């Protein structure tokens, strides 16, 4: 039986831990078992139980305090993730093997892990060897996506992760519940964007011809091939959360291999009915005798 995994990615502060917590609570209402694995060695607090925590293996604070290494926060995080890549056996032991596992991996927020470092790609390949069907979930903060240039930057970050990891990916705009009604109306055009019209709206602010040409080429790439689209995520909207979960389940084909279980029927303990002997049918002996004579 296959196992299922979500790699929850995105910039720092995009709401990855909140997303995991919301999905765990939502899955409980659906009577689904969902586990969370923390892969952020710099995490400090999360309000959900974890089945494995990378901080049991290595922590950023310990690396930064090591006099022989002398790493800063970003360098320490990269060192921790490379150390983690060399010790995947710890993760395998922590995960165990249970049929129909559905696990959310809460990943670090440093974008370089998904652009020019092989750590996350190695993790994906290892999970696939363990029979996991993996989907990337890339989060961006909707509060910073209400301007066209910031939106294009967020799209390129999501696209970098898609190209690097080569797995199905669902892109999500988080914290929709924190937007004002005016901002919610404004951000609707970014959920299904028309990049060329967005480019025209911002053409007056672009002074450099080279920058304008580059921006037009990026917008054309996004618009012509429909590579990146976003789903809204409001943690207070159960229907919206369910739509996001359905998109992810469809991308990893969750549920197709689950065996159908018929509902159990309670047995009724009725007293046995007495057997009634059937009366023999009335026989016409004259007809039987006549048939024998004729034969």
UniProtKB/TrEMBL annotation:
InterPro entries reported in the protein's UniProt record: Gpn (IPR004130), Gpn3 (IPR030228), P-loop_NTPase (IPR027417)
Keywords on record: GTP-binding, Hydrolase, Nucleotide-binding
The keyword Transport appears for this protein: no
Matches recorded under Gene3D superfamilies: P-loop containing nucleotide triphosphate hydrolases
Top-level lineage group: Eukaryota
Family matches, as SUPFAM superfamilies: P-loop containing nucleoside triphosphate hydrolases
Residue span of region Disordered: 262-284
Keyword GTP-binding tagged: yes
Cross-referenced Pfam families: ATP_bind_1
Example GO molecular function: GTPase activity
Function in brief: Small GTPase required for proper localization of RNA polymerase II (RNAPII). May act at an RNAP assembly step prior to nuclear import.
Subunit-level organization: Binds to RNA polymerase II (RNAPII).
Family, per entry: Belongs to the GPN-loop GTPase family.
Name under which the protein is recorded: GPN-loop GTPase 3
Gene: GPN3
């Amino acid at each position: 039986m296959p196992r299922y995994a979500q790699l929850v990615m995105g910039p720092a502060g995009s709401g990855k831990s909140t997303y995991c917590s919301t999905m765990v609570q939502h899955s409980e209402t659906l009577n689904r078992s969902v586990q969370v694995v923390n892969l952020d060695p710099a995490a400090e607090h999360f309000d959900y139980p974890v089945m494995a925590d990378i901080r049991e293996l290595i922590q950023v604070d310990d690396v930064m305090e090591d006099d022989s290494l002398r790493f800063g926060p970003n360098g320490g995080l990269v060192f921790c993730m490379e150390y983690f890549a060399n010790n995947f056996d710890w993760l395998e032991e922590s995960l165990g093997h249970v049929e129909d596992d559905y696990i959310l991996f809460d990943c670090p927020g440093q974008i370089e892990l998904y652009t020019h470092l092989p750590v996350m790609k190695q993790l994906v390949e290892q999970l696939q060897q363990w029979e996991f069907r993996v989907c990337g979930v890339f989060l961006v903060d909707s509060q910073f996506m209400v301007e066209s240039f910031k939106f294009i930057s967020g799209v390129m970050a999501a696209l970098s992760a898609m190209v690097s990891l080569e797995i199905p990916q669902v892109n999500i705009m988080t914290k929709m519940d924190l937007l004002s009604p005016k901002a919610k109306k404004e951000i609707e055009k970014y959920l299904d964007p028309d990049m060329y019209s967005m480019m025209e709206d911002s053409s007056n602010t672009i002074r450099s011809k080279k920058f304008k040409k580059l921006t037009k080429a990026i917008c054309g790439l996004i618009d012509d091939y429909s590579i990146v689209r976003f789903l809204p995520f409001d943690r207070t909207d159960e229907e919206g959360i369910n739509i996001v979960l359905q998109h992810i389940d469809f991308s990893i084909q969750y549920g197709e291999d689950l065996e159908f279980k018929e509902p159990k029927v309670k047995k009724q303990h009725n007293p046995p009915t007495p057997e009634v002997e059937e009366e023999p049918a009335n026989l016409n002996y004259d007809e039987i005798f006549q048939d024998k004579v004729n034969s």
